[in-house]
Amino acid sequence: xxxxxxxxxxxxxxxxxxxxxxxxxxxxxxxxxxxxxxxxxxxxxxxxxxxxxxxxxxxxxxxxxxxxxxxxxxxxxxxxxxxxxxxxxxxxxxxxxxxxxxxxxxxxxxxxxxxxxxxxxxxxxxxxxxxxxxxxxxxxxxxxxxxxxxxxxxxxxxxxxxxxxxxxxxxxxxxxxxxxxxxxxxxxxxxxxxxxxxxxxxxxxxxxxxxxxxxxxxxxxxxxxxxxxxxxxxxxxxxxxxxxxxxxxxxxxxxxxxxxxxxxxxxxxxxxxxxxxxxxxxxxxxxxxxxxxxxxxxxxxxxxxxxxxxxxxxxxxxxxxxxxxxxxxxxxxxxxxxxxxxxxxxxxxxxxxxxxxxxxxxxxxxxxxxxxxxxxxxxxxxxxxxxxxxxxxxxxxxxxxxxxxxxxxxxxxxxxxxxxxxxxxxxxxxxxxxxxxxxxxxxxxxxxxxxxxxxxxxxxxxxxxxxxxxxxxxxxxxxxxxxxxxxxxxxxxxxxxxxxxxxxx
Length: 505
What we know:
alpha+beta, globular, disordered N terminus, four-stranded mixed β-sheet, six-stranded antiparallel β-sheet, single chain
């Protein structure tokens, strides 16, 4: 960690700038910057101001309720929590391996979730910045503005997300907060009607997904200096990969690369994640800071998510996505791509991969028939104290997601530990805020374009700040610059429809 990100000399003498709340992200957070008399940023922090408490109130609940309960962590990626919890609790019911039917239906559900979430983020939340520019007028920098100026792109985004939600409904029972996955397997097949519906559109959706990769690649080609330099910093990378090194979003082992692309850890069992990762608590945020134990907090933080995954793997097993991945990694000239805006291009490559996997699974007869459940109490995994224990790790749309439970003889959960994707990226988002603030905040008057540039850096990570809520479109914002003696230097208000009013300065 950079020293001046966490501490600043004589902070009482510095001016404070607050962006509260950050808009067009899932959940609520704020940014604070401390500036010296010359307007240089001395400290930058992303604060997560919500407290959820899921790890505590899951305790005491019957284990079979958990896969449904934890979906309430997030309104935008409930399937990820649903499946991570189910995978963890497979070990509790003695099902270290679920049936082929259950595995394929869960994968279909998961890839539908990844596809619809990536479509939502790119087309609805980020495309206004990418298509119009960070400093475009706020009155059109939203999805309605995109629909007016680029109707084809908007329709494409809506269609992709709708299709992903239909995949979720067909496998989980509902588009949001379904019940299809249970400890030991699944509780439903995919019906003949749903198969016919999904198969009828699958080829079109694969083509839509590949055109989305084209959009991201063209944006980079049009402004290479921006896309290669904005919020750029070096970091380690972490994700799960398949046994043969291929990209894997549902089940695999942990791989870590350093900032130069060298493999530091490979084949690390997900069940031993605590041997690899430690979390740090800081007093100014409710979100923890994970890091690699072997490297320590200062050098051991890392990034997760699409940009990590497409570079951490050796290849993608689906041909169209692998061809597009090769185009992406070639832009690094043999070195990892570190710029934050590259997340969008990597995200679209993954969306194409998800659609290719969905197409293959829809052609598999196992999803319409076959044994759905497995389990043998004698095979349950037990902790040192004799309690049943399960750890489920999955690659959620935003990155690696870890669920860890212990269950007593009365079938009630006794302990729960969750490390969600955005938590892994916490330090990276703080670094992104610092990089943009130092590059663009030069002491000039605070305006909407400056505010949005800081938010663009955060949005690149597709953060789910509370992993519970989703904020679509603009949110009200009140930003104040205060001198060391508490004198108000400048204050700007932005209301819900994007209008800006300067109160002071």
